[in-house]
Design goal:
- This protein is mainly alpha-helical and about 300 residues long.
- It folds into two domains: about 210 residues, Cation efflux protein transmembrane domain (Alpha-lytic protease prodomain-like, Up-down Bundle); about 80 residues, Cation efflux protein, cytoplasmic domain (Alpha-Beta Plaits, 2-Layer Sandwich).
- The chain is built from nine helices and three strands; from the N terminus they run ααααααααββαβ.
Length: about 300
């Protein structure tokens, strides 16, 4: 057996939701410090406001990390399906932070129309900080989103979009700073309004997907058809009468009714059901358990 290379082990570690969230937390902490210093020394209100946005990202990322730890706990008597639902609850919490950020951005932008100091000229320090923030958070968004999709974690996916909202916020700050330096001070609030619209729009899409999970919304018809096709590949399965699936955080649970030859013994039918359960768990991502009901074919 070939030993796993250090590079492969390191790559696998970085692809875990917990490691990804840790990295996001410390990147956000560094950005808060950089942005706040740049806002003070660069005399930029836009950059100071952006640093507060990054501070909310630190809070959101910390909550996601705690939620991942709790959701990874094994099933117990009080939670027979595990603790994966915590992952979805945390995702909704992050979405709430996103919506609050979008609304605050809109209020701040509207206030700037009446309070903007037309004589203030931000320094280049604030400009460079905005560019750094955009680059860092876009990389963090892509990394976090990829890990979230690969692991099926709704909270990590929501956290990725929280990173993307910071990209939007930093773009608005960059436009505002550049506009102020060029004499167009009202570019900042206009960009802020656009950013708030984008953040709230993303939040609404995330709410729809997560509420569907909480209410046990049925998956797409294509998913059910794929489950039925996989079950039919198991020798002895004559027909799949019904298949259902529901998600609990990162895990999926299947409930499937199969029909077998009517003359089989109970033990033979049980063996087929066991093979169906094992095959579906191995062939479909995120499936934690499968309940198989066996019926004789008429």
């Amino acid at each position: 057996m070939t030993a796993e290379s250090p590079r492969s082990a390191w790559r696998e570690t970085l692809s875990s939701p917990e490691a990804c969230t840790k990295i996001g937390f410390w990147v956000n902490v560094c950005l808060v410090v950089v942005k706040m210093a740049a806002g003070i020394y660069g005399k930029s209100n836009a950059m100071l406001a952006d640093s507060l946005h990054s501070l909310s990202d630190v809070l959101a990322t910390g909550i996601v990390y705690i939620g991942l730890k709790v959701s990874a706990k094994p099933p117990d008597e009080d939670h027979p399906y595990g603790h994966g639902g915590v992952d979805t609850l945390v995702a909704l919490g992050v979405i709430a932070v996103l919506i609050a950020t979008g609304l605050l951005a809109a209020l701040g932008a509207l206030r700037c129309f009446f309070t903007t100091d037309t004589t203030a000229t931000p320094g280049t320090t604030a400009l460079y900080a905005a560019v750094l923030s955009i680059a860092a958070k876009e990389v963090l968004f892509r990394y976090t989103y990829r890990v979230g999709k690969a692991s099926g974690s709704p909270s990590v996916i929501a956290n990725a979009w929280d990173h993307r909202s910071d990209v939007y916020s930093s773009i608005a700050a960059l436009i505002g700073i550049a506009g102020a330096r060029a004499g167009f001070v009202y570019l900042d609030p206009l960009a802020g309004l656009f950013v708030s619209y984008m953040i709230i729009r993303v939040s609404i899409d995330l709410i729809r997907s997560n509420v569907g999970e909480i209410t046990h919304e049925a998956p797409a018809a294509e998913t059910i058809e794929m489950i039925q096709r996989e079950a039919l590949t198991v020798p002895g399965v004559r027909r799949v009468r019904r298949a259902r699936m529901h998600r609990v955080g990162r895990s999926c649970f299947l409930d499937i009714d199969i029909q077998v030859e009517g003359g089989l013994t109970v033990e033979e039918g049980h063996d087929i059901a066991t093979r169906v359960r094992a095959h579906l768990r191995d062939s479909i991502e995120y499936v934690s358990d499968v309940m198989v009901h066996v019926e004789p074919q008429a």
